[in-house]
Amino acid sequence: MQVHEITGLLPPSVTVLGAPNSDAALALVLPEEAPLVARAIDKRRREFATGRALARAALARLGAPAIAIPRAPDRSPIWPEGVAGSISHCDTRAVVAVARREHGTVGVDVEHRDALKRELWASVFLPVEIARLEAQGDQARRGRMALVLFSAKESLYKAQ
């Protein structure tokens, strides 16, 4: 698995790692995690496996042991005591951000698209946000700005 450190995105106290979703990550899923995606399609299993492998690699950088990362009923990862973290994936890659809880919470989102389609705006934005997006230059710029706003909201949601 090709792991890349991502710097400059978040403060240095946060470790951010990314990797392409891969079959190699499937071999790194721990037995306690396997049931979480046992009935998932292959694409979803690769995304999950890559995210969990990255999470363990990031935790290792904090000095934490390589442990299973279960999930809560809302499907969010359950981090070890004293750790805040976030896992995100899209069709092509996964990204993980972790930090010691004393530094606060952390949220991350990764997207592989160039824009958020206009027909999705009403389901993810407030009317005032849509009005501000509509005021942004041309259609391509509005779509890119919508994707940035959506990704920021996802990151904040995960940080909660």
Describe the SSE topology.
Blueprint: E1 4-5, E2 15-20, H1 42-61, E3 83-89, E4 93-100, H2 121-124, H3 127-134, H4 139-159
Antiparallel strand pairs: 1-2, 2-4, 3-4
How would you describe what is shown here?
The protein is α+β, with helices and mostly antiparallel strands and 160 residues long. It is 33% helix and 14% strand. It contains 4 helices and 4 strands. Strands 1-2-4-3 form a 4-stranded antiparallel sheet, sandwiched between helices. The two termini are 29 Å apart. The model has no long low-confidence stretch (mean pLDDT 91).
Summarize the structure in short.
The chain is α+β, with helices and mostly antiparallel strands.
